[in-house]
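Objective 1b: paired records.
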Amino acid sequence: MEEQGIDLLLPHTLLNAGYLADHWYHLVNTTVGPYTTFDVDESYQLLVGLPRDGKIEPFVTCRRGAEEGEMFVWDVWIKDKRIWGPNVLPRSLNSPLGPPATDLYRDPFSAVAAAIHERGMGAGVIGIERQFLTIAAFEKLRRALPEAKFCEVTPLFLELRAIKSAEEIRRLRLVTRATEGALAAAIKGLRPGTSGLDLERALGAEHYRLGVRHEWCHTQMGPLGIDITAPNPGKAEPGMTIRIDVGASYRGYQSDLSPVISVGEPSRELVRVHEAVRRAMDAVLEVVRPGVSAAELYEFGDRILKAERLENYLMYVAHGLGRNVHEEPVIAPGSKWTLAAGMVLAVELVTVLPHLGMIGLEDDVVVTRDGREDLTTIGRKLHVVPA
């Protein structure tokens, strides 16, 4: 913040405001686009104010009602909570939240303006996620803080979030291993006649049993799976190649795994292609350590695929993993990143054969001080189920 001359960070997305507050509102199912609250026709926003001066208290906006309870349950560390929204029925007599606020802010932007003015920072340089802020929201901020100078800070958050703390890695370790367990259960039950919808049901049920939130799933069934990635009624057939790409979350942190499955004994071609993609993946994994440039890491995997005359379908070989399922560093040509301890990567190599489908392998790893820690390994082998 000092380097960029920013007096106050004011992010609003659940990716970045949620990162600073360590908060994730369960009613919002998108990381960037907010939903509209029906009672005041106001878009939900979580805004966090973090002053550069550590002696000045940070603040966070909080939607009246359910979000108050959520912040209590997860013990949001920021104590100055600016409650906004219409008043609702009184709390229960034994509520742990204390007396309800009576002087509520009309919307999150008036709450933010009041907190900033109280801190004497109304004419300061305020960092916002401008590329994700709606025109209406920015206009409200500008009217409420006419003397402030606003600047874009989304790249700053990409840099901040690239290296994880010990607690972030703990959460990622938990959620990635839960997804590995969910995949093992789904693969074990897969047979001819199993549909993509059946696979998602199995994955979701196992995710919840293991204590994480099921977020998304691609069930890529045979050649049609190149274009139809959403879980669908299409059924597994003998000889089919299936790729599952799936993620869950725990306390706001995501997993991202992908194995390849053969229904019945795999063809020689599938074995050959899978082995080539696996060699490319292993080449990347073997050199994951601090100090390796992203561009160099990309070349280790890409050259093997090229030597086998296979397309590197995604044009990267790994991507960062954290509060978002795809974040920095992206291991691709031209990347300026250098690996550092604490980065968490989804190492992912994918090729496509129109008559077989998508052959894509993906596992999650942590960059450690002297190499890497494998969070998962299920994405590396070719899984064969009975036909």
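Objective 1b, second protein:
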Amino acid sequence: MVPLSVLDLATVVTGSTAADALADTTRLAVLAEELGYRRLWVAEHHGMPAVASSAPAVLIGHIADATTTLRVGAGGVMLPNHSPLVVAEQFGTLVALHPDRIDLGLGRAPGTDPATALALRRTPDLGADTFPQDVVELITYLIDSDGPPTRPAPVPGRGYLPEMWLLGSSTFSAQLAGLLGLPFSFAYHFAPDLVDQAFHQYRSTFKPSVLLDRPRAMVAVSVLCAPEAEEAAWLAGPSALAVVQLRTGRLRPLASPEEAAAYRYTDQERALVEATTATHLVGDPETVHRGLVSLQERTGADEIMLSTRAHSLAARSQSLRLVAARWTADADRPSSSSAA
């Protein structure tokens, strides 16, 4: 069985604060470590009332302090929002503090609305045309020992290399990851349509590098597991409502299951939710497990990352426990050949 990992958005829910959300994410990381998950990533989002992880490097350091073996990282840092030198300094510092435990996933989307992106970048150019060059520049700061003397030298920097990944929801980053010889993680949890093409593009263009000698792929999927399917569907209600709120610009903290159940969807909104959540794995442990196995077999992923959005830490923790227990049960079961 391939390793499982966790993607968490430090979700701010109705009746809570950003401080509560950050504390819950830290508690979830401690649990993920206890349950045997390989890594926990936090994402970079800005100006979203339901997401408190706007400064991933700061949050990663805090989570790494609270854990001992869990890999902790960004899924991801939206590189066009930042200077590659600043990112190299931040993550070089994290690696110096927590050796062999820090991941740096890089994305090219803004992770916010245009006005906030403008405030972040301080330039009217909100594109990501220089993303490939920025990735190469960032890698060079961390591994190049023979650069020109005029090149800035971050401290900590060279020699303090996080595990680097490219993130994507299309074939662009898949191809770039292959050409640069980097691990690649696909955002199946919100962009499932291109997963097959993206992984094919990644593997077919892969060139070994000083960072990686063969393709290494991860797929992120939305998962919400409960003892019974009915409970899982109830707990997934807020996430479904969030789809409508995001698409219509009515951003707010994540609703409670009761608020979500009381919402009256229009026909168009219902169709949007059904289309968006069709690939989410919501149900009892056996249903979710079959979905994870099927996704791994389809994609050939070397690792699966679970994104679980629910109104309470208890619901998220329950989901991680149930998925891990069922996954471990398969891993511990003797194969037919060994049993023979």
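The CA atoms of residues 243 and 249 lie 10 Å apart. Confidence is low (pLDDT under 50) at residues 336-340.
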